[in-house]
Specification:
- By secondary structure, this protein is an alpha/beta fold.
């Protein structure tokens, strides 16, 4: 049995720090210098003329770049190791893979330009993509560039591809946030009750308490962190429900404008032009993102996009790292010329 730390890569991982102008003076005071990993496949150095498709990998809510090295028990491979193995085996055409950090002190940004959080969409699209294309031998066209993520990263993959078809020609979403009435609204009554019973109805009091103790140590912490993070991303901190959990329609509509299921109609041309769309989720996903995945697929079908790799598998929200190389192979095969 291979020791769990003995996975020397066949390709190469370059670690950089990018000074982001887009993230300078962001409202949360989060760092504007961000780590960036770029993977080049085996043979990259040997053939100095060859150019490669690129796939950008973004993380779920609360994710930060070095978490990709977190290993499950019994030596299970991490996604960077699985990606390297995929290309070393020759099972997929070679590709440059870009591992993006978009951590925030709230947990994430949904990869949007959110006034209350920062310009993370600009950071990704206007800074990272040109930076990588200038320094690596990528095929610098949307037909050869994809984006992949899970959970909020899967959301970011869907939304970024819809907003920027001039940059991305393929997307892969694993249990991405979608169908907001299923994945978010279910938490509103619990959030209202937690705020009432523990924090005098105040998210400010919650954050004071949360940051004064071991993190995520009380029941309900996840619900409160997630609901507030989404409110900051979609409605600048306005909650879409009142103290009883009843919806506030004008704020809820602002959230729904960012629901990928509802965005499909507005971005139909962009989606019809995608070279690759991959959608999956576990059938026991705790956030009902299997329902969101199916709703997104049906909307794609309605606008005439039928070439979609779609699968619901036996699984939950976590423990699905094994799905990522499947999507990566699918993307690269369709983003590689000829």
């Amino acid at each position: 049995m291979t020791a769990p730390w003995a996975y020397p890569p066949a390709g190469r991982f370059d670690e950089h720090v990018l000074d982001s102008q887009a993230l300078r003076d962001n409202p949360l005071g989060d760092p504007h210098e961000r780590p960036l990993w770029v993977y080049v496949p085996p043979g990259y150095e040997a053939d100095g003329e060859r150019r490669y498709p690129a796939v950008y990998v973004i993380q779920g809510y609360t994710g930060q770049l070095d978490m990709w090295r977190n290993r499950a028990p019994f030596g299970a491979q991490t996604y960077p190791e699985l990606a390297d193995e995929l290309f070393a085996s020759g099972e997929a055409p070679p590709c440059v893979v870009v591992w993006v950090d978009a951590w925030t002190s709230l947990g994430g940004s949904q990869f949007l330009d959110a006034p209350a959080i920062g310009r993370y969409h600009t950071y990704l699209c206007e800074e990272l993509v040109p930076w990588v294309d200038e320094r690596y031998r990528t095929l610098a066209e949307p037909a050869h560039r994809g984006i992949q993520g899970k959970s909020s990263g899967g959301y970011g993959a869907m939304v970024t591809a819809m907003l920027r078809p001039d940059l991305f020609g393929g997307l892969a979403t694993h249990a991405g946030d979608a169908l907001f009435e299923a994945c978010y609204a279910k938490d509103f009554p619990e959030t209202a009750r937690l705020l009432r019973d523990r924090y005098e109805g105040s998210f400010e009091r919650f954050w004071e308490d949360f940051r004064s103790r071991p993190l995520v140590s009380k029941p309900g912490d996840h619900v409160l962190v997630n609901t507030w993070g989404m409110a900051m991303a979609y409605s600048e901190g306005e909650l879409p429900f009142d103290s009883t959990g009843r919806l506030v329609p004008e704020v809820w509509e602002r959230w729904l404008e960012w629901d990928p299921v509802r965005m499909v109609e507005r971005h139909a041309d962009a989606l019809r032009g995608m070279r690759a769309i991959y959608v999956d989720a576990g059938t026991s996903d705790e956030f009902y993102l299997d329902l969101g995945a199916e709703a997104f697929r049906r909307e794609l079908e309605r606008i005439g996009v039928t070439e979609v790799r779609f699968e619901l598998f036996d699984g939950k929200h976590g423990g699905i790292t094994w799905r990522y190389p499947i999507a990566l192979r699918y993307l690269v095969e369709r983003l590689t010329p000829g």
